[in-house]
Amino acid sequence: MSGLVAGKVALVTGAGSGIGRASALAFAREGARVVVSDLDVPSGDAAAEQIRRDGGEAIFVRCDVTVEAEVAALLDAALAKFGRLDCALNNAGGPGKGGRVHEIPSDEWNAILSLNLTGVFLCMKHEIPVMIRQGSGAIVNTSSGAGLVAVPLLAHYAAAKHGVLGLTKTAAIENARTGLRINAICPGSVETPALRAHMAKDPAIAKGILATQPGGRLGQPDEIAEAVIWLCSDRASFVTGESFVVDGGAVAR
Fold it and tell me: Could you give the CA distance from residue 67 to residue 48 in angstroms, rounded to a whole number?
């Protein structure tokens, strides 16, 4: 353990599986106390318990990031337990079912934007004042390769992830003199339970996704977590307002 975030308190939403879980475990390995949050109670509990089994310190707080009262309660719980908040990964999200733009039902459009964009906004709305009072803090928002390029049949998801980048840049500039750093990560195709389930639906889907990978493989959640930890560490002290692409060269191809 190199202790990149030793002594810090970190909050991770969507921490029950995939990139969120890998990041929560990485924060703990690097010395942080972790607030694990997810809508799924069993998976969130399991992530926090794994941290404790490995010798770290963690609590689990259930939260629906689309509900502001629950986000406020999440921050209250973090402060009640640990007294401060140094790092946050606003990661909760998902792609939905999708379809061509004119075929997406309005309720699905609203639900996907609420989860992937409004959820990030609500988390920052309640995280930033805490960090301003402290005079320091680092926030990472999970965007996607879909925040940089077109994604046919997932217009709502792409729109939300593009929005995360604009939100991140604006918040970073607004807080450039407050001691806060705010960045986004843009993961590519990462081998998470959700992506594996999607690829299992049809061999053509799996083939198509792998064809977009210059290195011929999917990313691993731990590889994304490494970028998150670095961005939250003091080693990234001059990095803010950035969209950090971690996709094996998929967007660059």
Answer: 22
- Distances in Å between the Cα of 146 and the Cα atoms of 52, 113, 142, 193 are 34, 13, 11, 18
What pLDDT digit, counting tens, does each position of 20-75 carry? 999 999 999 999 999 999 999 999 999 999 999 999 999 999 999 999 999 999 99
Domains of the chain: 9-246 (3.40.50.720)
Task: Enumerate residues 6+ apart whose C-beta is below 8 A from 166.
Answer: none
Q: Point out the residues that are catalytic.
A: 157
Contacts 24+ apart (CB under 8 A), 110-113: 112/156, 112/157, 112/160, 113/156, 113/159, 113/160, 113/163
**pTM (predicted TM-score):** 0.95
Q: What are phi and psi of 46, to 5 degrees?
A: -65, -40
CB atoms within 10 A of CB 143: 29
Angle between helices 119-134 and 155-174 (to 10 degrees): 20
Q: Which residue has the tokens 């879980």?
A: 21
Distance between CA atoms of residues 72 and 15, nearest Å: 17
Asked if 65 and 11 touch (Cβ cutoff 8 Å), the reply is: no
Cα distances from 130 to residues 85, 90, 99, 171, 223, in angstroms, run 7, 15, 39, 14, 29
- Residue 218: strand, helix, or coil: coil
Q: Is 184 exposed, middle or buried (0-12, 13-18, 19+ CB in 10 A)?
A: buried
pLDDT value of residue 2: 67
> For 142-217, where are the alpha helices, taking DSSP H only?
155-174, 193-200, 203-211
DSSP state for residue 169 in the 8-state scheme: H
